[in-house]
Amino acid sequence: MTKHESTICDWAMPPGATVKEIMNRENMTQELVACKLNLSFQEMQSLLSGDLRIDALIAQELAASIGGAARFWLQRDKDYLQAKQVSEALVPERWVAQFPLNEMASFGWVHKTENKVKATLDFFGVSSTREWQLRYGETQSVLFRKSQVTSTSGAVLAWLRKAKLEAASISCAPWSRDKFISGLSKIRKLTFERDPTIFCAELSRICAEAGVAVVFIRAPLGTGISGAACFLSNEKALIALSFRHLVDDQFWFSFFHEAGHLALHGGHINLDAECLQSPAAAEIEANAFAQDTLVPATYRNALISARKSKYEIVRLARKAGVAAGVLVGQLQRSGHLPYNRMNYLKRRYVWTSRETG
Fold first, then answer.
1. pTM of the model
2. What pLDDT does 148 receive?
């Protein structure tokens, strides 16, 4: 039994059930307990049914009149409310509403059908909403515990699920951190390639040789997903990229950012999306890794000096071995170039219908 499952089983009954149990054991009437708690008959009924929340005052009165610490009653009420919310969220019609099924169908992730619940359960590989919660609830709570915007959490989890499904079909050599890092210099040269079908295939091949499955998954609208990285097992890692903004500097920075997570931060899921507040230290380190890999420190001063001339940027790009659009993106990220300048040096992409999923 998982920790989450245990919590649901233990605390799904309202705190009033515990109050009733103590009352029966101590032969206390409702009228007596209501009097001790300074509650009316109706309020006492609401307390026993779980409709009346236990605040600090009621918790203190419960502790004084029937036993237990005040903090126990407050925590009991909090756990019940959480279990109740989880239970209500698992009502199939409510549960399925969190997923962008129209987009998922247009991407080819699920079949269009009137039975949306079954289609979504099949997509996640589970037979019930309860099984979904037990399998994905922990991931959901980890990813969104610091989120300021959780309305897209279902879409994000669907995107991650699709990424893992795609990765499962990719054959990889066993994970090798050293081989992965050494291959990044080859990948860096791919920034010059204009055709995504060519550089994506080569990028995937190089990474697979080091134990990393790279997938390209279009993200549902509103998620703000750039990419994600995690270890699927001790021998296989995943980098998922959304091609967000459909521009080369964003794509390559996202890849090397996720590569930094794998190289530096181990096996937990690192998800980069606007709706999340990722741990600051990890994000700073991954950003620095991407920046230093794309534009080594030896070129940093020259890059800043070249910022006013497109010819100087192109010349430096050839010398540094990285696309000019990537250099423009680095200048913009570092604040040395406004975001509305030199964007014509970036390469832009489009999704085709066969590439949406």
1. 0.76
2. 44
